[in-house]
Amino acid sequence: MARAGLSPERVTEAAAELADEVGFDNITVSALARRFGVKDASLYSHIRNAQDLRIRVALQALAELADQVAEALAGRSGKDALIAFASAYRSYAKAHPGRYAAMQIPLDPDTARASAGPRHAEMTRAILRGYALAEPAQTDAVRLLHSAFHGFVSLEKSGGFDHTPRAIDDSWAQGLHALDAMLRNWPAAG
Amino acid sequence: MARAGLSPERVTEAAAELADEVGFDNITVSALARRFGVKDASLYSHIRNAQDLRIRVALQALAELADQVAEALAGRSGKDALIAFASAYRSYAKAHPGRYAAMQIPLDPDTARASAGPRHAEMTRAILRGYALAEPAQTDAVRLLHSAFHGFVSLEKSGGFDHTPRAIDDSWAQGLHALDAMLRNWPAAG
DNA sequence: TAGCTTTCCTAGGGGTCCTAGGCAAATAAT
DNA sequence: ATTATTTGCCTAGGACCCCTAGGAAAGCTA
Known about the structure:
2 copies of one chain form a homodimer.
Chain A: H1 8-22, H2 29-36, H3 50-73, H4 78-95, H5 97-102, H6 109-114, H7 117-128, H8 137-157, H9 168-184
Helix pairs in contact in A: 1-3, 3-4, 3-7, 4-8, 4-9, 7-8, 8-9
Chain A binds a DNA duplex through helix 2.
């Protein structure tokens, strides 16, 4: 029997593609095996189990997104950087819905530390350098920005904005405009 | 054989409790049947299928949360209303993680229109009455607020804020403070 | 070429979803 | 009160999925 040339990397990549096609919740070891023309049991030489597969997809997605955000951010600062960051984030979620969903699964602390997660946090902080926020305001702002981006993308995907005629792209642009203003006038604690 | 006294309502309620205990993704018809001391096939007289069960939980959760938000909002306006709304939202998510996750599944348009979703939208708009925003700014602000609340709660739950010492409650309070300031100084389009 | 490692296989157990058809309990009709 | 009807829960069983154990062949190493 000819070999299919599997490896953890190829399996993970195929799982990511499958997730984008059928949804992260619907990736199964069996479907993945079918895609390779292989029996499902054969995949267990390359992945530990189904959960391990999902975590691999999540880690790959985090790294991919971090790369794209880093590229979008290069040479920009202030509001330009804010918009570039947010747009890269939203574009990735739209282009790769399965991978984006994968990124939301909770990782155990060790895995999270070794992932691209810290890069994301660092880049978000980098944006805020243009706004001169001292701690702990910086952390609060990072959390709020991250929340707003993730929330928007997530609600957009689940259809939460569908029942109002206003174009979503316009709300997004205006929302970023407002967030920029908010960061420039960050209020004192109280 | 004595009957278990099942009904669509009791099954849905039990599914919601189960979701809060083991996570929305882990509710199964089998587990629910075990909880009632009944065979899994027996539940199919009360629910159409597993997806139907999930939708019922989602609709119940939307209605419950709408009730709680309405109560929290009564007699408040401006920043008080903003904080009351956001706190009710976050409290519900913490107290009922499974139900909260259920609310995120996409509903088809007819189901969504008949759900408590429109009540949520209306209440969010009610908050903004204290800030005197004209359309389309009002819609943009509604979307941004909803995004920020949902994003924050969702990231908090998946551990996205765990790697910074700043207390999450403090970030939440300060974030609401900043959002209030943003709404009071909503920028002109551009 | 002989041995070793890796890759994929078959076999099989256990779980979940769901349908079909049957019997018994609760309810309605006579 | 007896009969008829509806309803609730049952057993049986198919399809799919996850995962383990152990075997055979492909490819590498000596």
